[in-house]
Amino acid sequence: MNVYDTAVIHGRFQILHNDHLKYLLAGKAMCRHLVVGITNPDPVLTNSVEVDPGRSHVMSNPLTYFERLVLVREVLLEAGLSHQEMTITPLPITRPELFRHYVPMDALFVLSIYDGWGRQKLEQFRSLGLNTHVLWEVNPEQKGISAQDIRELILKDQNWEHLVPEASARLLKKWRIPDRLRQMQQESIKAN
Fold it and tell me: Burial, 40: exposed, middle or buried (Cβ in 10 Å; 0-12, 13-18, 19+)?
């Protein structure tokens, strides 16, 4: 299709999974160049969201911005995109006043909606006068794979690799993310 020159798509990608890849590729199908905004890039640029307070919880954000950048890049390269077809950047989604410093504001802003937070982001984009496109809107029960589910499978030492692209599984193991999640869980238990 490639109707637009540039589209901006976003996500936390706090375990980049197969449905994330489907979402990213659907965004890329609409443009020649895909800008992937990685949200919650660091704690300073992350505000709590009333409609989804768990998004800013430490256990929901085990990967660094840099790790997520590498994950997105390697998964998209593995899926057949070239470096020239993508840019990966931070996107402080809860700080819309900063968007212009990170992404092209004249691009198409692509998103999917599963809940109140998705609807809030769409309204936020529209209030900024951004050109938007909703790829799909479904109920949370129909969402499919969630990174939270994968993190829970990892913590329970259950099979999770089939739910993520090969590059994602390879890097998560290389970086010992399962061990990091277990350590974070233990620290969280001790703190409470």
Answer: buried
At residue 54, the pLDDT reads 59
pLDDT, tens digit (0-9, with 9 covering 90-100), for 67-92: 999 999 999 999 999 999 999 999 99
Residue pair 22/137 in contact by the 8 Å Cβ criterion: no
* Rounded Cα distance, 147 and 14, in Å: 6
46 Cβ neighbours under 8 A, 6+ residues apart: 40, 56, 61, 92, 94
Q: What is the pLDDT of residue 42?
A: 86
Helices (H), 90-175: 116-127, 147-155, 166-174
Only one residue has tokens 């919880």, namely 57
In 3D space, the residue among 62, 65, 63 whose CA is nearest the CA of residue 42 turns out to be: 65
Among 36, 35, 34, 40, which residue's Cα sits nearest to residue 14?
40
- For every residue of 40-91, DSSP letters joined together read S-SGGG----TT-GGGGSGGG--S-HHHHHHHHHHHHHHTT--GGGEEEEE-
DSSP 8-state class, residue 128 = T
- For the record, the structure tokens of 46 come out as 């992350």
Tell me how crowded residue 172 is: count the other CB atoms within 10 A of its CB.
24
How many C-beta atoms lie closer than 10 Å to residue 164's C-beta? 24
